[in-house]
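WARN retry 2 of 3 for item q-0093 after timeout on previous attempt; input resubmitted unchanged.
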Amino acid sequence: MLLREAAETDLPAIQQIYAHHVLHGAGTFEEEPPNVQDMMARHAAVIANGLPWLVASTGGEIAGYCYAQRYHSRSAWRFTLEDAIYVSPGHIRKGVGIALLGELILRCATLNHRQLIAVIGDSNNAGSIGLHKAAGFEQIGVMKNVGYKFHIELDAVIMQRALA
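OK item q-0093 returned
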């Protein structure tokens, strides 16, 4: 498995991975998959802020991706980031997630950020919650019934990890 910065040529594969999670999972509260141009704009915004957007590739295929973005735009939040991580359905539970998240944590710490927040859709999302715990995050709260997708109300689990 190769971990590297995402390139613009990776964005169609990234869009397909994310579209799968939008359409079939509650890990994201987005209900309509963004198109490739939308993903290009999101990627450009992350890179413009000097933050990492990484992919894991195996056998020439994008197996997953992750990135960090500012947690909030107000200046007092400037040392706090939020992570996003999605793994291709065919690569779940094969070490892709923990490899990506570990590298993201290292890069964010190197950039002198102090805290990394995960906002995980669905309190039943054992995979993402377990992945974040394995990477040193602790659950700090649950926002009850803040999302509505697939005709059900969903919680959002908040996890946090110090970077310093």
